[in-house]
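request received
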Amino acid sequence: MNRTTLDLWVGFFVAIGIGALLFLALKVSSFPGIQMEKAYRLEARFDNIGGLKAQSPVRSAGVLVGRVTDIHFDPATYEAVVEMRIDSRYAFPADTFASIYTAGLLGDQYIGLEPGGDERNLADGARIMKTQSAVVLEKLVSQFLFNKAAEGQSTQP
Amino acid sequence: MAGDFLVNIENLCFDYGDKPVLRGVDMRIPKGRVVAIMGGSGCGKTTLLRLIGGQLRPTSGRVRVAGEEVSAMRLAELYALRKRMGMLFQFGALFTDLSVFDNVAFPLREHTDLPEALIRDLVMMKLQAVGLRGARDLMPSALSGGMARRVALARAVALDPALIMYDEPFTGLDPISLGVIGQLIRRLNDALGATSIMVTHDVQESLLMVDYIYFISAGQVVAEGTPAEIRASRDPFVDQFVNAKADGPVSYHFPALQVAADFGMAEAGVPA
Amino acid sequence: MIRLLQGCANFLRFLGSETVNRVWRLGYASRFFLAVLLRSGAAFFRFRLVMREIWFSGVLSLIIIMISGLFVGLVLGLQGYEILQRYGSSQALGTMVALSLLRELGPVVAALLFASRAGSAITAEIGLMKTTEQLTAMDMMAVDPVARVVAPRFWGGVISMPFLAALFSSMGIFGGWLIGVVFIGVDDGAFWSSMQASVDFRHDVWNGVCKSLVFGVAVSLIAVFEGFDSEPTAEGVSRAITRTVVTSALAILALDFVLTSFMFRGMS
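response:
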């Protein structure tokens, strides 16, 4: 094996290896470092977050504007504290409303932001005051059944 | 007195597991000479070379090379010593992934910082000495047994060693190659001013070219002397070995039970 | 009765000696690993030695890795589409193909192929060098065989493995795309966007790379160890090659379980 041929082959091998890694990083996955170079942190508290996870998307009007970075439980208030990073290109009014939605009937859960009308914007590290918890399917179903039962009772003479 | 001997071996014992191989060998190899160590197959000759090179540690006894005790050396000291030793292995042990040229250049590249042009010249000189300058670009797989051994010889002397060891240099060679190797060993030894130890069981070839001979049997030196003394020797072992007799002090049979017992004739004839 | 007792005793003796042997060998292999690491300096100081081994174990495995990756991707595309279509979510095909390749199939299958293609070749090479006394000769020439022969092969394998696994996954995703988008007609945009939405760089791609790195260390170590430790006969070398492939396969699958349980615990 000639030296230069060997160098050439090894160089080719390493090049397509790195090419494959870049393909996996950029085309297959959503590489975090590139999408959100500049971001700011927001915090929101929910009574129930349902199936929300770290890395879940944050959307406004259906557009991805950030991701959930951390979720923990506050033992003082018994609430779930959700931290998220929002792309700094997007600013939201201070009275923005945060809700937890489900994509489709059985899809993943995400946070939806609905802007209010306040003059001031949410700053880095600020807390979203107005939140709505996840809809828990079991609660919904039991509520529905309970209502039906109550209806049935009231219509009886 | 000690200055005249390059290798001193005193009461050397070595066991493989619990099988004794050498039991109390004493040898002195004088500087500048070619010494042959002879004995039957599997009598510990190769083991002796390994002990001199420090690849094995003796069970007891001492091996000293140039006044330094090999058995007490740490690895770094051992490697420093081995740079002054060359060894020719039984089948050459050429590196199969390197060409003839690169094989001979290997010790030079590993141990010196010489410029490539100088290494080329040195390798060419060594290959010229063994008559294989024209084969420098061949791979070892393309060489015959005799040629491979000559290349290995060129590699063994690449660093101009003070001590050259040969492990069965004549095995499996045709008579012409055998004569060539024998002469080469002698010539290289004298040209380099080196000392050579040769382990072999080829008596006739050795008697022609060596200065001194040790006979080993059952892990001990049983006879020694110059070729003339050996030829004249009346020692039964030497007689058997030199004249290639099938039976003698070295038994033809592997140690076994009495024939009668082994063939199940004990009850019939021989009392149990 | 006495026979039975004797049989039991023999079995226990066999079990004991086997256990002692295995543990002893494991300890020996660990010491060997340490020695290889400690004597790797020369390999990096003279990187050309490692270059040759990257060629030997990486470049020569390229064809088999890429073709196998393509076929695995094609099969995943067909099977995945068939299953996902039942639930009316065939646009999730990209997600399924990418996640199964990146998390499991890419590193594991690439490592298995690597063990049988490059690992066995490394064992054979070192074993034959030992059989023909090349290692002893090197040692007698004051060149450490572990530093000169073993360490470059080890690092060549370790460096090649993540690249091979990434290539395997990439080819597999390409194969899935070929089946899903080109032949079956899943929407191209949906294929990639559903993939990008659910494949996370750190959790999926990076963990896969880490896995393949660990497998690379394990397979390369097993290969050089079995070669170096082989009995110096033709039969001994062939047994060592078999052991390399079998032990590597077991090590890859067991390590995969351990790594998966660490990496993906607490997710989803």
